[in-house]
Amino acid sequence: MSVQLQTAPRPAAPAAARAAAAEFAHVAKTYTHPLFRSRKIEALRDATLRIEPGEVFGLLGPNRAGKTTLVKVLLSLCRPTAGTATRLGAPVSDRSTLAQVGYVHENQAFPRYLTAVGLLEYYGALTLLPPEVVRERAPKLLKRFGLADRGGEPIARFSKGMLQRLGLAQALLNEPRLLVLDEPTEGLDLEGRRLLRDAAAEVRSRGGSVLLVSHVLTEVEQLCDRVGVLVGGRLVHVGTLADFVQHPTKDRVRSLEQALQQFYVREGK
Hints:
This protein is an alpha/beta fold. The protein has a domain at 15-109 and 177-266: Rossmann fold (3-Layer(aba) Sandwich). Helices cover 32% and strands 23% of the residues. It is built from 8 helices and 10 strands. The strands form 2 sheets. Strands 6-7-8-3-9-10 form a 6-stranded mixed β-sheet, sandwiched between helices. A hairpin with a 2-residue loop joins strand 9 (226-231) and strand 10. Helix 2 packs across helix 3 (131-144) and helix 3 (131-144) packs across helix 4 (160-172). The two termini are 22 Å apart.
């Protein structure tokens, strides 16, 4: 697997988006073990990271590396034990900035009694969009993601791939300044993955940023400007793909996959 080092030129970010899309400064998160209260679980350790406006950033790491915890901190789903984190220039405790974020999870948990149109109306209200804006955008997004003829059907009838497509439509509804993609290719066919790449490119073209959490290395190579590698709760590397595969190791590597394997082995995970 060869690394695609050529990326499209970044557009200039608008003045309102000059602040970091996301920034973590020495963030740690410790959980109490659910059975043994005296035992602590360190999910994140001294994580420092900045995601720039107009950047597509890839977050990689093995299972239980801390990727989900980092995303939860970013989305105000949990509080860091130590350190600070900001989202779109404001502390993550400022939930008003969540209205400018789009989020796609690998397993969508939408209310299954809603129709596709009803879901977009619901999320439009959550992100404070005027109803007339939702009515204008929803049909276009459903058509774009191949769901134009399913807008009035209950989500309970949707396949896994259709749910992921609907999730992409929902995440783009508010034209987010920050798009978080958490293992988004689960259940998507080749056309769905192309639509995913187009969605990331659209956000970037507006000066927005994308955080891609993925195990699919081809997607990371095609989309990302920089990558961060989490192992055991620690960010062991942050840099461009070129820097990553050229990172000094015992053996010279030629691919992202080889570089990741060496990091995992060296960190003992």
